[in-house]
Amino acid sequence: MQIHNLFDLGWTHYFQSQLDLASLESQLPFRVVSVQRNLIDCVGLDRDYQQKHLHLSTYYWRDKPPEEHPTIGDWILLKLDFQPLHILERKSLIKRRSAGRESSIQLIAANIDTLFIVTSCNAEFSINRIERYLSIAAESSIHCVVVLTKVDLCADTTPYLEAVSHSHPELPVELVNATDASTLSILKNWIKPGQTVALLGSSGVGKSTLINGLKGSQEQTTAAIRENDSKGRHTTTSRSLHDLPGGGLLLDTPGMRELQIVDSEEGIKATFADIDILAKKCRFKNCQHTTEPGCAIIEEIKAGRLEQRRLDNYHTLLSEQTRNNESLAERRSNDRALGRFYKNTLKTVRKFKSRE
């Protein structure tokens, strides 16, 4: 990655306003460009305005909750000797409930301007999954563009376009062949200098190929999908930030078929704004929109003006987000209690030692 100033890394007035004159003289902002298990890669300018690439240990944040750990796209304020101070307030954040049984938050990316929701014109396509991504992005007011890939392998792309436009007529959709660089120019219209665009989608939809095409290089490893079910293989195993020749930054993420939604109630309501507006017209305030009399939503479905699928997905996402929030709240409460126990035990030990 080659930068000449912080603007090339996505530095804006939003972050500048968090610093005072004293901070600018004694502190350096660096952006997280890659996150490994024990190391965080950052890029910025030293006090002589020369580009510097740092490898920071995650040890510094070991005692902080997951939401306060650095993630790719973050801006970290460092001392002049490159020791971490704190993370600047985020403009936007994509996160999920961690996969598996453990109830914890996993941060995906921060300070994203535009989200490319990448999906294929094959069996992998799912409007429900697109709406899941839209809800997560809407929680942070991230602008979204649906990118339909593998059009060269699809005889008719009309069903995929209609599926998106029917449910979300205002949502931009771009058709591309990721292996043909000439068709990718349309995506560059969404990537301006200083802007950060993240790619989100399942394995095998062509995210790495898109990045290679936009960069004009073959830095990202790619692999073919399975022909029997159109599912892809994981080729990206960690998140990384890439600068583009014409300016702008692309953030790649590993394929995630399971993106458990959390802390996104307002985002869900924004994605399903039509349903949320209709719900306020129901006869009963606690209407569940199933069999209740005077339900405005049921009337719209019967009249053919609202899809049952959209209502079902709306309920699914709201229920999932409520369930995940409750389990996370319980986990956080237990962590706080455990922290208090350790703190009190340490005080007791120190007290006895002082008497010896």
From TrEMBL:
One of its GO terms (molecular function) is GTPase activity. Binds 1 zinc ion per subunit. It is found in: Cytoplasm. Residues 227-247 are annotated as: Disordered. One of its GO terms (cellular component) is cytoplasm. It comes from Candidatus Venteria ishoeyi. Monomer. Associates with 30S ribosomal subunit, binds 16S rRNA. The keyword Nucleotide-binding applies. This is Small ribosomal subunit biogenesis GTPase RsgA. It comes from the Bacteria. Keywords: Cytoplasm, GTP-binding, Hydrolase, Metal-binding, Nucleotide-binding, Ribosome biogenesis, RNA-binding, rRNA-binding, Zinc. One of several proteins that assist in the late maturation steps of the functional core of the 30S ribosomal subunit. Helps release RbfA from mature subunits. May play a role in the assembly of ribosomal proteins into the subunit. Circularly permuted GTPase that catalyzes slow GTP hydrolysis, GTPase activity is stimulated by the 30S ribosomal subunit. Gene3D superfamilies: P-loop containing nucleotide triphosphate hydrolases (3.40.50.300), Probable gtpase engc, domain 3 (1.10.40.50). The gene is rsgA_1. Zn(2+) binds at C282, C287, H289, C295. Its cofactor is Zn(2+). Residues 101-259 form the CP-type G domain. It holds the Pfam family RsgA_GTPase. NCBIfam families: ribosome small subunit-dependent GTPase A (TIGR00157). The lineage of its organism: Bacteria, Pseudomonadati, Pseudomonadota, Gammaproteobacteria, Thiotrichales. Transmembrane segments: none annotated. GTP binds at T149, K150, V151, D152, G201, S202, S203, G204, V205, G206, K207, S208, T209.
